[in-house]
Amino acid sequence: MTGGLVAAECTACGRVTFPRALWCPACGAQQLRRRTLGTAIVEETTTVRRAGERADWAAVRIGAVRADGGPVVIARLEDGVEAGERVHLEGGEGAPVARSNLPPQEPR
Known about the structure:
Number of domains: 1
Largest sheet: 5 strands, mixed, barrel
Strand order of the largest sheet: 4-5-6-8-7
Distance between the termini: 23 Å
Number of helices: 0
């Protein structure tokens, strides 16, 4: 797993925002520090099945994912991730991704 998803935390009031903002939406302060969002819980899921007129579009599962001690993030869901499951948030290219938080299973 990677280090998580980068958000911003207000040094004045502690509000965590994602995506990172230029100032705090709660108190207006401009002093923000980098905060990494790691584990989270999937609150809701849905499947996006259309993308306008694109013929090459494949359905994509997304979810509203509440980061521990932070905001709700809309993220792509790894295959098999369902509502109520604990996940690990990752950034990277494009949209945030919620991956299963379970350790890899050992072969039987």
